[in-house]
């Protein structure tokens, strides 16, 4: 099975950890992407001097910032869903299913069980996270007990999970007399408290930022983080060091799934305050997030920034469509190009090696030679 | 055979080779001539530049300056392909076999005989057999490389080079992972090979091998040649001085633990006790049968035995690392209590597999140095694992154990083999556990470091720690161990006191001669049991004949 | 005719008129959305207004696009489909000076500055069913639809009901494309159609959006017949498509936009057979020039016209699956 | 009923052929040691270019040729960046899949002049085997009659690839390179060149997959019409590893499960659950295989 190779892939990636602040290649990458994108625009007759301001406006100005934040929150959550298991070398490609079932669970609870204020928001979120954790968690024993790599099982479980959520909102949880498969509007008490006027910036933002900070802290500064990184770097080494790697695999897989489930809950409890079939998966948070995490080349601290970059591209891209008349297909072209180019420059091994060589200068141990 | 240039010229000659890695000068103006038909030893400390020099000779790396002559003619070696074309062949220390390909495929790949576009494995098989006959290297062309015991794998590696008509064969630390029997047969093969005019370059850390197997020796130190010797006219001491700039102290038995009136720890209770231990593998085949022994504080107990005699299972069970899924009976007691499954924290353990188990290549030296101890309160910061404390501990260990490293923040893969090994020892010995289990502590490690490591083990013994030492170096066992247990087919078949354990007695016990008289020759034994270990008896097919 | 004429639409119409159309999804293969875009575009040209299309990708981007449209202060903001129900419940109330138009649905609480246009596509589907019931030899009908969602049942249930009204023994089987791109998977749609044909179905209604052509191909290869939806799809597979369940989105849209531009906003305009907002090609006068197979069966056409009249007259009531 | 079973087989073959072709490409990459997750985008690109070339030349076979060539060219992005520059192949693939989606939709309007779905009576699809005179052969006639020649060709290609990998010089070298690139390099094999070859060949196969999808299964192009088939191919490669016949079995298992799900829909199974069926069945098969293989597994230990 190709597990062997995939494993080394993960190891290589989880390996590329390093201290902060080596952002030069990232900057270079973005610059390179800009150049190529500009060329594409010129070729198809879009004026870059209209398009770029429109992109920025579409992402951060004119009241669009709230929508960018609205997309940043789930993307960051999904990034963690992928990044946490990745630290132990496991690929979670099943974010969609974990998110969708988490969302359905949150919606079902909010609709069916009357809850006091406060609890009406918190409990569905907790249940959403737990649901996501369970959906993702099954992949760990499937790997450790049956030898099926998580990259396969997460992908295989995802589609049925999405289908199940779709079935649930189509039948048992459906809003009657409406065209789409969607749940009824959730009760007011279950609406995420908004920050600001629009309703799109909710307490989801501080929540996810806090959790991200928590993850970065755990990863860098705690025993658990150390054990997770060691497992990703060399599973047998970790086992040798007394790390219970199988349990850790369950924990990190479920931890990732919890974030995906939480994202589902946050989306459903946010506007339009219901589970709309397909609405969670349509924006493609899962794969945007994966690209963002991989761009961060295994540096947790960089993840929020790469997620922000991807979100700005995505949301700003729509602004570009609206204001600069860039056709929507071209937006996709540009996003694809940016990902390819940024990846080419930022994750290139050749470049990384050169960087590593430069870092190798200090001479501490020579004294005892 | 192609012969360019005049026949008096060396088969291969490296002239003024310099190679830098950033600030490190790995090779500094090295000259080295290899004569036709000789075995030329290359020795030196860890990091002296041996592997780098060999990789230049084999076209894997290009020198910053200097060049290579073949039969007196300057050749360009920009890739292994070109080196192969010039009759060079290399056996790397870490074998480079394709695990899922057959032996025949492994040997011919890149130079396949074909018939109408199809790889002619029959022809390949015939050629492999012929080579086997000429050089005494027998392997089954149809078996899968990934399932072969190490000794056989190495023969495949050599066959790979010979098949390509290599006239200069480079071997980088070929015996580091071989048992003494396997090593002896390797040298027989090399002797045979040189008889056809092929030259051999042998990189090794084992002086005994240098003295018995080579014709001439070149010593490297810090990237320079510090000595050239004709083997017959030199001594181990001379070589060591060239290597490390001083001679080794006299070999000494470790001192008795302090404060032990009669000089033996015999009266103390066992720190580690193995009692009637039997282990079955998943197929229900016994890997250990009724093994019992004990190790007292301040005692070093050695484990000898050919590979696959149960050492792996024994040590994995003692340390708690044996993966679940196999049945055991009997027990392992640690000061009277059973060991914990998963990993027993009160036993320090230096594994044989430095890359696969003992270190995580991509993690920093500092992070590698705390593994296993990472839960101790001493490393706790205000909340969580204190990075400063981790670094601090690493610096202390680097200093105390004289580990040569650029920075404790660098990945451990940047350390030379010997220094990585010292790092592992430093980590485990510094934990102050009552019991230490050590496997192959000096494998691939230079003589200076060997001496140091032996010193460390003796110190541990003197400090009252109980040491279980598994090694395939009989001299190491004899020098260090108070008692030596010999394992054969999952049983302890002999127990010898350190001073009564001669190579002969050990060797005889290792082949099961004492347990089952009339066993076959050591050679056959080594292989069949090693084979059994790696592929399980169910699908053990003949890999040798 | 709502408050704030002097600031909003009127001000805009004084200078230049403009229309912003927002779709719930990328237009892509969706013939319904394509027609909606075409209608708005042509109306804009007709009344001399500028036209902009905002394609949304998900509920959040719908809201964002509506916000952006509100900032642009056009003559009218058009939203297509029920996906706008939530946003158009709140936003028009916050911007009373702005005119909104929702096509194909209407929120329960309708603001006065929101105009709604909706269709009784089930009436047209019923007519298609009548044709299918009359033309099927086996009496076995099928529908290949994109997804099993309530809205899509508006094309399925009345279709079978129409067939049953003329052939009590007619049976109907719906199959759904599903998968990861249900609205644009012609290969899967074709395969579903073949499955139906394998079971003896000889008339299939294609409600699979971008997959419809796959259904037509399957029908053509097996000598079965098909129905298209939304637009005239007969030319795509001449002779194999009997007729189409048509929704004159463009016509209804044009009328509504013109009304709004003229200051007549608000209310719900329902387009059914009576209003000529939905229909089948068989009702067209220039049917002979179309490539629809039904043209060869004058008796069927006559029956369809009669049923149409009965529906318009209220003699026949077509059940709306969404009303149940 | 016999006929019913034969049409079932036929529908499985039709549905599976594009997946098989793409998976075969993925397999080549996997054998060479490159993880190719861009099959979805490449198949879509292949479908689009095949239709465009068919549209422009008026010949289905030129369409196929054009699709194959253009997709091989497209896959050069992956080959250059991931093999030469060793960039992360997964991120590159995420970008390439997105790029293909946008680029096909954009160029469709430029080249074919429409958005959404392009179909025209003038667009030439691949001939059927029946049309080529094979309809009277028993079994083959009923099962394959309505299929394009690429359907049997795909299965022949799998067998040929299996043979090629096993028996030929280049096949052996490719296998070696994937297993242990350093070892291959130290034997003088050109690791990069073989990997480039594998990735480009995968592109060509995805082009063929796209051509079969758009000119064989149907005769049209529709935005996003690869509809997840490339992902199924990726999963099949993950399951089958480097073994062509296992990859083929994975594709067929999936295809049969999917066709069964279709049929169960007719029997009242909700569409959403029918959608899940192939994934659930594949997963169960894997678990059973895993449970059975657990005892036999030997650790793959490299020298
Ligand atoms: N790729 C590399 N990058 C940086 N430094 C290197 C590299 N390869 C070798 N070195 C350094 O060059 C020096 C010589 O290394 P080399 O591997 O040749 O030593 P060696 O004599 O083979 O050691 P050992 O006995 O441990 O095998 C060491 O200091 C090593 O750290
Ligand atoms: N990227 C690198 N950076 C720094 N040093 C390196 C690097 N790669 C290799 N080296 C050095 O070169 C050596 C590699 O040579 P070789 O393959 O002979 O391993 P080795 O030193 O013999 O290790 P071992 O004996 O443990 O297998 C390493 O030990 C290390 O010192
Ligand atoms: Mg070396
Ligand atoms: Mg070494």
What features would you describe in this structure?
- The complex is a heterotetramer of chains A (369), B (545), C (324) and D (303).
- Chain A contains 16 helices and no strands.
- Chain A has helices at residues 3-15, 24-44, 48-60, 65-86, 95-112, 119-137, 139-146, 150-170, 204-221, 223-233, 235-240, 245-269, 285-295, 303-324, 328-346, 349-359.
- In chain A, α2 packs antiparallel against α15 and α9 crosses α10 (223-233).
- Chain A is globular, with a radius of gyration of 22 Å.
- The termini of chain A are far apart.
- Chain C has a six-stranded parallel beta sheet, sandwiched between helices. In chain C, strands 7-6-8-9-10-12 form a six-stranded mixed beta sheet, with helices on both faces.
- In chain C, β6, α6 and β7 form a beta-alpha-beta unit.
- With 303 residues, chain D is mostly helical.
- Chain D has one domain (3-226).
- Chain D contains 13 helices and two strands.
- A two-stranded antiparallel ribbon of chain D has the order 1-2.
- Chain D is globular and about 55 Å long.
- Chains in contact: A-B, A-C, A-D, B-D, C-D.
- One magnesium ion binds at residues 50-51, 172 of chain B.
- Residues 21, 24, 26, 44, 46-52, 416-418, 446 of chain B line the site of one adenosine-5'-triphosphate.
- Chain A: Pfam families: BPD_transp_2 (PF02653).
- Chain A: InterPro entries: ABC_transp_permease.
- Chain A: This is ABC transporter permease.
Topology diagram in text:
The complex is a heterotetramer of chains A (369), B (545), C (324) and D (303).
Chain B: E1 12-21, E2 24-34, E3 39-44, H1 50-57, E4 65-70, E5 73-75, H2 80-85, E6 88-91, H3 103-108, E7 114-115, E8 118-119, H4 121-135, H5 150-163, E9 168-172, H6 180-195, E10 199-203, H7 207-213, E11 216-221, E12 224-230, H8 236-244, E13 272-280, E14 286-295, E15 300-304, H9 311-319, E16 328-334, E17 337-338, E18 347-350, H10 354-358, H11 365-370, H12 387-400, H13 417-429, E19 435-439, H14 447-462, E20 466-470, H15 474-480, E21 483-488, E22 491-497, H16 503-510, H17 522-535
Parallel strand pairs in B: 3-10, 3-11, 6-9, 9-10, 15-20, 15-21, 18-19, 19-20
Antiparallel strand pairs in B: 1-2, 1-4, 4-5, 7-8, 11-12, 13-14, 13-16, 16-17, 21-22
Helix pairs in contact in B: 13-14
Chain C: H1 9-14, E1 17-23, H2 31-47, E2 49-55, H3 59-72, E3 76-80, H4 87-94, E4 100-103, E5 114-119, H5 121-135, E6 140-145, H6 153-166, E7 171-176, H7 186-198, E8 203-207, H8 212-222, E9 225-230, E10 241-247, H9 249-261, E11 268-271, E12 278-280, H10 298-313
Chain D: H1 2-32, H2 39-57, H3 60-84, H4 89-112, E1 117-118, H5 130-134, H6 140-144, H7 150-167, H8 169-179, H9 181-186, H10 191-217, E2 221-222, H11 229-240, H12 244-266, H13 271-293
Antiparallel strand pairs in D: 1-2
Helix pairs in contact in D: 1-7, 1-10, 1-11, 1-12, 2-3, 2-4, 2-10, 2-11, 3-4, 3-10, 7-8, 8-10, 11-12, 12-13
The complex binds adenosine-5'-triphosphate (ATP) (2 copies) and magnesium ion (2 copies).
One adenosine-5'-triphosphate (ATP) binds at residues 21, 24, 26, 44, 46-52, 416-418, 446 of chain B.
């Amino acid at each position: 099975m190709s597990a062997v190779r995939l494993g080394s892939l993960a190891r290589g990636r989880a390996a590329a950890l390093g201290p902060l602040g080596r952002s030069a290649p990232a900057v270079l990458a973005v610059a390179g992407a800009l150049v190529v994108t500009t060329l594409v625009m010129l070729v198809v007759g879009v004026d870059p001097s209209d398009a770029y301001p429109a992109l920025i406006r579409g992402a951060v100005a004119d009241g669009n910032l709230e929508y960018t934040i609205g997309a940043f929150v789930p993307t960051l959550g999904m990034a963690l869903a992928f990044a946490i298991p990745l630290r132990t070398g496991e690929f979670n490609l099943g974010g969609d299913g974990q998110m969708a079932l988490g969302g359905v669970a949150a919606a079902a609870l909010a609709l069916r069980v009357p809850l006091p204020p406060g609890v009406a928001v918190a409990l569905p979120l907790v249940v959403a996270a737990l649901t996501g954790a369970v959906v993702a968690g099954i992949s760990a024993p499937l790997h450790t007990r049956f030898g099926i790599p998580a990259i396969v099982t997460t992908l295989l479980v995802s589609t049925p999970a999405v289908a199940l959520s779709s079935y649930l909102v189509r039948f048992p949880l459906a809003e009657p007399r409406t065209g789409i498969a969607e749940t009824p509007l959730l009760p007011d008490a279950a609406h995420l408290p908004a920050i600001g006027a629009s309703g799109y910036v909710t307490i989801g933002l501080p929540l996810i930022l806090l959790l991200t900070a928590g993850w970065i802290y755990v990863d860098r500064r705690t025993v658990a983080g150390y054990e997770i990184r060691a497992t990703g770097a060399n599973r047998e080494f970790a086992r040798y060091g007394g790390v219970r790697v199988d349990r850790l695999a369950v924990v990190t897989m479920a931890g990732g799934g919890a974030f995906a489930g939480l994202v589902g809950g946050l989306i459903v409890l946010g506007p339009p305050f219901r589970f709309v079939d397909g609405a969670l998966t349509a924006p493609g948070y899962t794969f945007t997030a994966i690209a963002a995490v991989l761009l961060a080349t295994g540096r947790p601290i960089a993840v929020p920034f790469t997620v922000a970059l991807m979100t700005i591209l995505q949301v700003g891209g729509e602004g570009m469509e609206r204001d600069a008349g860039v056709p929507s297909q071209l937006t996709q072209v540009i996003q694809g190009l940016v990902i390819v180019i940024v990846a080419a420059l930022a994750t290139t091994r050749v470049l990384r090696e050169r960087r590593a060589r430069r870092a190798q200068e200090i001479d501490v141990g020579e004294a005892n030679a | 055979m192609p012969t360019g240039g005049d026949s008096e010229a060396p088969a291969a000659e490296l002239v003024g080779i310099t190679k830098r890695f950033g600030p490190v000068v790995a090779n500094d103006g090295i000259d080295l001539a290899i004569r036709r038909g000789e075995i030329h030893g290359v020795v030196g400390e860890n990091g002296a530049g041996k592997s780098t020099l060999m990789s230049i000779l084999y076209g894997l790396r290009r020198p910053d300056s200097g060049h290579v002559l073949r039969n007196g003619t300057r050749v360009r070696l920009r890739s292994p392909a070109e080196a192969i074309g010039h009759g060079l062949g290399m056996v790397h220390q870490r074998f480079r076999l394709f695990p899922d390909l057959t032996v025949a495929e492994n040997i011919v790949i890149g130079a396949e005989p074909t018939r109408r576009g199809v790889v002619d494995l029959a022809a390949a098989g015939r050629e492999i057999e012929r080579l086997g006959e000429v050089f005494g290297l027998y392997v089954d062309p149809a078996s899968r490389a990934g399932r072969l015991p190490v000794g056989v794998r190495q023969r495949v590696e050599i066959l790979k080079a010979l098949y390509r008509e290599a006239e200069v064969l480079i071997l980088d630390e070929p015996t580091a992972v071989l048992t003494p029997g396997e090593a002896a047969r390797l040298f027989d093969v090399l002797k045979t090979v040189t008889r056809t005019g092929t030259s051999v370059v042998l990189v090794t850390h084992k002086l005994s091998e240098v003295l018995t197997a080579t014709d001439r020796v070149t010593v490297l130190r810090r990237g320079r040649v510090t000595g050239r010797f004709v083997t017959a006219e030199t001594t181990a001491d001379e070589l060591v001085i060239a290597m490390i700039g001083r001679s080794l102290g006299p070999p000494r038995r470790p001192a008795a633990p302090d404060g032990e009136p009669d000089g033996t720890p015999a009266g103390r209770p066992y720190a580690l006790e193995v009692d009637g231990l039997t282990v079955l593998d998943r197929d229900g085949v016994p890997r250990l049968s009724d093994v019992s022994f004990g190790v007292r504080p301040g005692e070093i107990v050695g484990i000898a035995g050919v590979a696959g005699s149960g050492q792996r299972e024994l040590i994995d069970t003692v340390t708690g690392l044996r993966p679940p899924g196999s049945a055991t009976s009997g027990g392992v007691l640690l000061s009277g209590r059973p060991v914990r499954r998963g990993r027993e924290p009160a036993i320090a353990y230096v594994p044989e597999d430095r890359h696969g188990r003992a270190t995580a290549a991509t993690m920093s030296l500092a992070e590698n140095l705390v593994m296993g101890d990472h839960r101790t309160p001493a490393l706790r910061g205000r909340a969580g694992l204190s990075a400063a404390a981790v670094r601090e501990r690493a610096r202390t260990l680097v200093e105390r154990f004289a580990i040569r490293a650029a920075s404790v923040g660098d990945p451990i893969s940047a350390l030379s083999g010997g220094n990585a090994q010292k790092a592992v020892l430093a980590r485990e010995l510094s934990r102050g556990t009552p019991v230490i289990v050590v496997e192959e502590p000096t494998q691939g490690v230079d003589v200076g470091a060997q001496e140091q490591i032996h010193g460390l083990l003796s110190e541990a013994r003197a400090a009252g720690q109980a040491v279980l030492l598994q090694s395939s170096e009989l001299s190491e066992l004899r020098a260090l161990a108070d008692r030596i247990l010999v394992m054969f087919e999952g049983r302890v078949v002999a127990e010898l006191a350190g001073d009564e354990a001669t190579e002969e007695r050990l060797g005889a016990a290792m082949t099961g001669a004492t347990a089952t008289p009339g066993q076959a020759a050591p050679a056959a034994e080594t292989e069949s049991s090693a084979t059994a270990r790696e592929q399980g008896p169910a699908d053990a097919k003949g890999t040798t004949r | 005719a709502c408050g704030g004429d002097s600031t909003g639409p009127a001000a805009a119409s004084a200078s230049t008129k403009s229309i912003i159309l927002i779709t719930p999804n990328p237009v892509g293969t969706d013939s319904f959305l394509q027609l909606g875009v075409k209608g708005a575009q042509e109306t804009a040209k007709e009344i001399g207004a500028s036209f902009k299309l905002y394609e949304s990708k998900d509920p959040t981007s719908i809201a964002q696009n509506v916000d952006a449209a509100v900032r642009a202060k056009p003559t009218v903001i058009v939203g297509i489909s029920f996906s706008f129900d939530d946003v158009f419940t709140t936003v028009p109330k916050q911007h009373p000076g702005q005119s909104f138009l929702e096509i194909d649905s209407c929120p329960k609480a309708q603001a006065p500055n929101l105009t709604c246009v909706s269709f009784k596509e089930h009436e047209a589907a019923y007519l298609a069913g009548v044709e299918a019931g009359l033309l099927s030899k086996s009496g076995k009908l099928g529908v290949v639809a994109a997804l099993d969602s309530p809205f899509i049942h508006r094309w399925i249930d009345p279709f079978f009901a129409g067939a049953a009204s003329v052939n009590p023994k007619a049976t109907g089987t719906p199959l759904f494309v599903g998968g990861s791109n249900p609205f644009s998977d012609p290969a899967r749609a074709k395969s579903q159609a073949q499955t139906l044909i394998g079971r003896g179905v000889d008339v299939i209604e294609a409600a699979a959006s971008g997959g419809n052509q796959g259904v037509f191909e399957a029908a053509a290869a097996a000598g079965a017949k098909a129905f298209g939806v939304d637009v005239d799809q007969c030319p795509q597979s001449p002779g194999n498509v009997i007729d189409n369940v048509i929704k004159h989105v463009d016509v209804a849209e044009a009328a509504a936009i013109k009304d709004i531009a003229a200051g007549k906003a608000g209310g719900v305009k329902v387009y059914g057979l009576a209003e000529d907002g939905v229909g089948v090609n068989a009702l067209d006068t220039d049917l002979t020039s179309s490539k629809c197979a039904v043209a060869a069966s004058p008796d069927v056409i006559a029956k369809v016209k009669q049923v149409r009249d009965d529906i318009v007259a209220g003699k026949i009531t077509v059940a709306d699956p969404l009303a149940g | 009923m016999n006929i019913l079973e034969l049409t079932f087989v036929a529908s499985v073959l039709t549905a599976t052929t594009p997946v098989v072709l793409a998976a075969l490409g993925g397999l080549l990459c996997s054998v060479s040691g490159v993880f190719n997750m861009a099959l979805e985008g490449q198949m879509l690109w292949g479908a689009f270019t095949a239709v465009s070339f068919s549209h422009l030349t008026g010949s289905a076979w030129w369409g196929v040729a054009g699709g194959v060539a253009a997709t091989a060219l497209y896959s050069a992005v992956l080959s250059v960046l991931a093999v030469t520059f060793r960039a992360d192949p997964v991120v590159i693939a995420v970008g390439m899949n997105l790029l293909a989606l946008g680029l096909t939709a954009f160029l469709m309007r430029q080249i074919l002049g429409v958005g959404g779905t392009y179909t025209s009576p003038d667009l030439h699809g691949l001939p059927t085997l029946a049309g080529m005179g094979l309809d009277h052969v028993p079994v083959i006639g009923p099962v394959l009659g309505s299929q394009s020649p690429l359907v049997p060709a795909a299965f022949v290609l799998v067998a040929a690839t299996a043979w090629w990998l096993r028996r030929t010089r280049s096949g052996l070298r490719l296998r070696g390179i994937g297993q242990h690139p350093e070892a291959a390099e130290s034997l003088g094999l050109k690791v990069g060149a073989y990997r480039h070859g594998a990735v480009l060949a995968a592109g060509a196969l995805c082009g063929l997959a796209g051509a079969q999808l758009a000119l064989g299964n149907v005769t049209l192009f529709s935005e996003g019409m690869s509809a997840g088939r490339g992902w199924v191919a990726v999963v099949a490669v993950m399951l089958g590893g480097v073994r062509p016949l296992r990859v083929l079995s994975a594709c067929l298992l999936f295809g049969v499960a999917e066709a069964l799900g279709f049929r169960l829909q007719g029997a009242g199974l909700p569409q959403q659950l029918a959608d899940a069926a192939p994934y659930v069945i594949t997963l169960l098969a894997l678990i059973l295989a895993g449970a059975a293989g657990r005892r036999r597994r030997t650790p793959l230990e490299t020298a």
